[in-house]
Write a structure and sequence with these properties.
This protein is of the alpha+beta class. It is built from 17 helices and 19 strands. Helix content is 36%, strand content 20%. A hairpin with a 4-residue loop joins strand 5 and strand 6. The protein is globular, with a radius of gyration of 23 Å. The chain binds flavin-adenine dinucleotide. The site of flavin-adenine dinucleotide has 37 residues, from strand 3, helix 5, strand 10 and helix 12.
């Protein structure tokens, strides 16, 4: 039966667009962190929306689940198939055309498989900015970033992915195409269906194209890195910067000394601008669309005043682009360094700014009480309230995966308890996927989870779209096996 099914897909797309051998499939059935792996009948590579629609229809008829996959850089295992009911991985790589760029209304129509960095370049080509920026931008796809509602370093000024999408084209679980590729800023024609697909992690349909918002390109910028002895003091600088420069503050990132040291221990070609160690490092960027404004002077003055007040210990404001890029490289090296150094129990927390110091102190205290051998790291887009608390262990800290998972769930509980007590969110930008689904089920109180389930039921009654992600799979929700379904025909 199964070869028959794969044969149908092969007839639809051509044999070169199907990968079914275990060796070829390997990269598509495990996640970026190497924490999850599963099985799939095959990976398919459609090129146009009509092919996605046809593949989805074949799967719906056969009762085979679909795991949409972009660059496979997600942090929660949301793009990884699980062992169990038959499924395919639907890769969007070949749907990578920029359909149009319109500098007059500041929009761009792109296909879901476009790499984020290519979209930034295409916007730059018409003297515009597409502001989403994150460490994986050279390999993540726009469909993946929309489906996770990714954040990154520019949220402070431009908002997360949800704020950057005007319209969406998506293939529904029955194969129909929902075309909401509007370039309009105002469109009150009924429910805003596009919002359902943003952040849905592929559980409601396959995004095939989107209309993105573009922005005027900054012509002046200034980058700085500074050191502070506490999160409170770093937040004091944030408040003053915002008060003075307003929306020109485009990034305000924080790195704990433990995380900073780990980056330098495991990554090459990085140079620290500071001779003395510090408790906290902040990376700041100011930018303006008007040319000729001396933002370097503004940055130097504000940081100089902060040093005089004792809020900052030291600061560097590079005058060359290369040195500014080096500071950003330090920040963007964090995920890769942590992966090379060992095992991370990572959290993607948002708490209100005035609760950040308490969050940092309390999570560190409780994690250390549980596991004194944990290296507790903090890094995040603190300007928008998002901080990642990471309990990090050496490669040999656990005898097996089960021991690691046991400790990970205890640490998750600690961080969730602190987060909820401080009115925060357990997933600011990475999503739910496999990693956080149990935690979501625990904390989504009252009608929240029930409404989510009803939406899933309404749009994907067969439960074939990325099953088991976001919402815990119920026993009754297991997809029908191909053999059973076919034998009824
Ligand atoms: C080094 C590094 C740094 C990162 N930094 C950040 C950061 O600063 N901020 C941040 O928010 N995230 C960050 N991330 C994680 C981030 O979620 C991803 O990089 C990105 O959003 C996922 O894009 P992707 O194309 O790789 O999606 P995938 O990982 O392939 O998929 C993610 C989810 O989207 C679904 N999906 C993918 N494509 C589609 C589609 N076309 N239609 C429907 N569903 C789809 C998948 O099923 C899955 O549920 C980082 C990751 C790495 C590796």
């Amino acid at each position: 039966m199964l070869p028959d099914f794969v044969g149908r897909l092969s007839a639809l797309l051509g044999p070169a667009q199907i990968v079914a051998d275990p060796h070829g499939l390997a990269p598509y059935v495990q996640d970026w962190r190497g924490r999850y792996s599963g099985t799939a009948l095959c990976a398919v590579f459609p090129r146009i929306t009509a092919e996605v629609s046809a593949v989805v229809q074949v799967c719906a008829e056969a009762g085979v689940a679909i795991v949409p996959q972009g660059g496979n850089t997600g942090m929660c295992g949301a793009a990884t198939p699980e062992a169990g009911p038959p499924c395919i991985v639907l890769r969007l790589d070949r749907m990578n055309r920029v359909r149009s760029v319109n500098p007059l209304d500041n929009t761009m129509v792109v296909e879901a498989g476009c790499i984020l960095a290519d979209i930034q370049t295409a916007a730059d080509g018409v003297d515009r900015l597409f502001p989403l920026s994150l460490g994986a931008e050279g390999s993540c796809q726009i469909g993946g970033t929309i489906s996770t509602n990714a954040g990154g370093t520019a949220v402070l000024r431009y908002g997360p992915m949800r704020d950057l999408v005007l319209g969406i084209e998506a293939v529904l679980p029955d194969g129909r195409v929902l075309n909401k590729l509007t370039r309009l800023r105002k469109d009150n024609t009924g429910y805003a269906l596009k919002q359902l697909f943003i952040g849905a992690e592929g559980t409601l349909g396959v995004i095939t194209a989107a209309v993105l918002k573009l922005f005027p390109k900054p012509r002046t910028s200034a980058v700085a890195m500074a050191t502070a002895d506490s999160v409170e003091n770093a937040l004091g600088v944030l408040a003053r910067l915002r008060g003075e420069v307003g929306d020109r503050l485009s990034a305000f990132e924080i790195i704990s000394h433990s995380q900073y040291d780990l980056v330098f221990a495991h990554m090459d070609n990085l140079t620290s601008p500071f001779a003395a160690p510090a408790g906290w490092y902040v990376l700041i960027e100011l930018s303006d669309t008007l040319a000729g404004i001396d933002l370097l002077a503004v940055m130097e003055r504000i940081l100089g005043e902060a040093i005089e007040r004792g809020e900052l210990e030291d600061a560097v404001v590079p005058t060359s682009e290369a040195k500014a890029q080096m500071l950003w490289r330090i920040r963007h090296s964090v995920s890769e360094a942590n992966k090379r150094a060992g095992l991370s129990v990572s959290h993607d927390t948002a708490v209100p700014l005035d609760r950040q110091p308490e969050f940092v102190a309390e999570t560190e205290r409780r994690i250390r009480a549980l596991r004194p051998d944990a290296n507790v790291l903090f890094v995040g887009h603190i300007g928008d309230g998002n901080i990642h608390a990471i309990a990090h262990f050496g490669h040999a800290a656990f005898p097996d995966a089960a021991a690691f998972e046991g400790v990970a769930s205890q640490i998750n509980q600690i961080v969730d308890d602190v987060t909820i007590a401080l009115e925060g969110s357990i997933s600011a930008e990475h999503g739910i996927g496999i990693s956080n689904r149990k935690r979501l089920a625990q904390i989504a109180a009252g009608p929240e989870l029930d409404v989510m389930r009803r939406i899933k039921d309404a749009i994907d009654p067969q439960r074939l779209m990325n099953p088991g992600k976001v919402l815990m799979p119920l026993r009754s929700e297991q997809p029908v096996r191909i053999a059973a379904k076919r034998s009824r025909k």
